[in-house]
Amino acid sequence: MLIKLKIFRFDPEKDETPYYQTFKVEADPMDRLLDCLNRIRWEQDPTLSFRMSCGHGVCGSDGMRIDGICGLACQKLVKRFKEEVLIEPLPVFRVVKDLVVDMVPFFEKYLSIKPHLLTKTSPPDQERKQSPEDHKLFEEAIRCILCACCTASCPVNQNKETEDYVGPAALVRAFRYLFDSRDEGSEERIALLDQKNGAWGCQTRWKCTEVCPKEIPVTKQIGQIKKRIYDAKQPKE
Amino acid sequence: MIFQHDIIIIGTGLAGLRAAVECTGQADVALVSKVYPTRSHSGAAQGGISASLGNDEEDHWEWHLFDTVKGSDYLGDQDAIEIMVKDAPRVIYELEHMGVPFSRTAEGKIAQRKFGGHTRDYGKGPVRRACYAADRTGRVVLDTLYDQCLRQRVKFYSEHYVLSLILEGDRYRGVVVYDLATGELHLLQAKAILLATGGCGKIYKTTSNSFASTGDGLALAYESGIPLEDMEFIQFHPTGLYPLGILVSEAARGEGGFLRNRLGERFMERYAPTVKDLAARDVVSRAIVTEIREGKGISGKDYVHLDLTHLGEEKILERLWEITSFVRIYLGVDPVYDPIPVQPTCHYVMGGIPTDVDGRVLKDEKGAVAQGLYASGECACVSVHGANRLGCNSLLDLLVFGRRSGLAMKKAIQQYQHTPLSGDPLKTLEERIKQLSNSSGKEKVDEIRRRMQSLMMDVGSVFRNEEGLKNGIEEIRSLKERYQKIRVTNPRKAFNYELMEAMELSHQLHLSEVILFSAFHRRESRGAHFREDFPGRADRYFLKHTLVFQTPKGPEIRYKPVKITRFQPETRVY
Question: Phi and psi (nearest 5°) for B51?
Fold first, then answer.
């Protein structure tokens, strides 16, 4: 089938403003959109830039806005689209070139939530024990591949006035540690998250959950973080 | 720009990150990757990491050693394998302490599952040895090690592509990198350089590997005069999702799934009577291709079925969530109710840059050490995998030898000071880039690459023969000539992937030639290398490692002996 891809183009070396360019690609209905993008780059216009690597939704490189919804180009099959698909870079982030955006602020926010196990006691000789039930509490969160589709879709992050919000991706990782029974840093974590731009930045708009390519219940997890903060602040009996 | 560091690590998969964790704090370490670190291909590893913890049933490192030696078809160096399997439990506990979210047993210990070729009591039956986090083990370990590096503020050069190794006299002194974001070249000077760039699966049309797996480190070492070891041994994973080649973890069979042909037969019973679907990967891949050749592929096509339908939805979603998601997305098939179409897919290169057990690169068959250069992970050949790697032994290899390389580098740099470089390596490369852009040639990277990928499938995959290999070598040489006439038409500086892919293709063509050349000269069948014209293993002639050197006249072959300590070669049946 013939499919048209209307692609956002911007090259700071030569363009004053972004523009859209439409390419026609002959594709199999089972092809990935990523395959189409590659074919354009290889056969029609080598100046088109976008990130990619694994091609099957594990590395998280090829997040972009597809017909207005953030997702991974390698996870979308051609057959799902009618004649024309609109392809744009992830919103929220600064466009560097075409579909490539500046991910540095994303990883800075990620780092700010202390994405590692905080421990006070020294570990045993063997593994720290953890029940399957305790493991299950955060298992969905470890599916996260840091593709940034959630943060890019978040209306709070999209709003210039509230763009300092740490964002759903960082909070998913915070959740993963906060609810890991092996972590001994909940006080420190709760202090970090109990901020206007921390967990409270979330306005429960659900966009993150709608777009997550790994089907993580992001909004629900942020809600659980909020509850955990609330519980921690209650006077102890 | 020129930057100086004590240690430069190229590649941010598990081997590179683990090495960095080992030496940061005591040395100025910088990591270089052509992608963002969390995009590295280690993240696509699914099934687990092998270690004889014995959490579910009795297990011993001696059994793990035997299985790995047998899996390697007796080509693995047994001294190195012994180091690896003895270190395995420590590796797992260390990861757990860092925070890796392993799946758990009812008692709260790290859960373990069965995997191909891993057995109890020297081959009596499958054993639970693979430590896992559902089917996303590589990804969670990658994230954990990345987080450890962030915590220690290790310097990352993300989206920087290495163009060459700087060799002055007999010492490796640094690398030249191409900054993808700006198009600028930088020189990174180092006292020690670790190549941890992973595999080269993208040489083949059907592969589980990422687009980034173009074998850059292998080719850079080779071009600088280092031989490549055992490159004829390319692993085809039995269960690649048809037709894309995406990995469907062996964990699917470890959890009880099995293969069926067009007639519904569980055909592995015929090929491996004892462990059946859990035989080593080379055995299972050959069985699948044999069934297909005999007309027993599904609907007469080039695939068979992987059947999980008897496992039940709960187990499938709990332990195999990722692969279930792949099958649903890419085929619209639900593995809970319907079998999965699979075919062998190029997955792993057993061979690589020869190293000792501390990651030091060896530059000849006598074991002379290349000063300042180290390698670990898939791009290295220690050799712990010999002619065929067992599932779950790769992550173990990365972690054991990544760490050992880190330790060795940390020690070695103490005796060495930076001194100015004599040449101007940046200039040489700037000229090469100009040449590619100003060339009057008409050849296109994509066309040459596509031809190479099809050719390698035809002559260099599961079954090989002399005629195919001979013709293959000739055609690769003609593709190399065509490559001389390529032109990079994208004149832009920022994110010029066309330029990077042109460089990658040069690497891929070199490696294709080495693979076919090594395979041509090994006139026997061993592990993943199966010669239809020499179907038996010939220990008398070929119980030795291949080394291929680049010379002005083309590749030159030499050999070195295999280290055998405990297990003499025996007939290999599963």
Answer: -165, 135
Report whether B267 contacts B292 (CB < 8 A): no
Peptide linkage before B425 cis (omega within 30 of 0)? no
Give residue-wise pLDDT tens across range B535-565.
999 999 999 999 999 999 999 999 999 999 9
How far are the Cα atoms of A65, B7, B405 from residue A68, in angstroms, in the given order?
A: 5, 44, 47
Q: What is the pLDDT of residues B409-459, one digit of tens each?
A: 999 999 899 999 988 889 999 999 999 999 999 999 999 999 999 999 999
Determine whether the interchain pair A59/B181 forms a contact, defined as Cβ–Cβ distance below 8 Å: no
Chain B: closest CA distance from residue A64 (Å): 16
- Write the pLDDT tens digit of every residue in A23-65: 999 999 999 999 999 999 999 999 999 999 999 999 999 999 9
| Residues B39, A59: C-beta atoms closer than 8 Å | yes
Q: Is B522 marked active-site?
A: no
The one catalytic residue among B129, B139, B260, B281: B281
Q: How far is CA B102 from CA A45, A141, B98, in A?
A: 44, 13, 11
Q: What is the per-residue pLDDT for B160?
A: 98
- Please name which of A73, A111, A107, A78 lies closest in space to residue A90, comparing C-alpha atoms: A73
Sign for the pseudo-dihedral over CA of B453, B216, B168, B430: positive
Task: Domain B425-561: give its CATH code.
Answer: 1.20.58.100
Q: Å from B144 to nearest chain A CA?
A: 7
Q: Select B239-344's CATH number: 2.60.40.1120, 3.90.700.10, 2.60.40.10, 3.40.50.10190.
A: 3.90.700.10
Whether A13 and B210 lie within 8 Å, measured CB to CB: no
For residue A236, is pLDDT > 80?
Answer: no
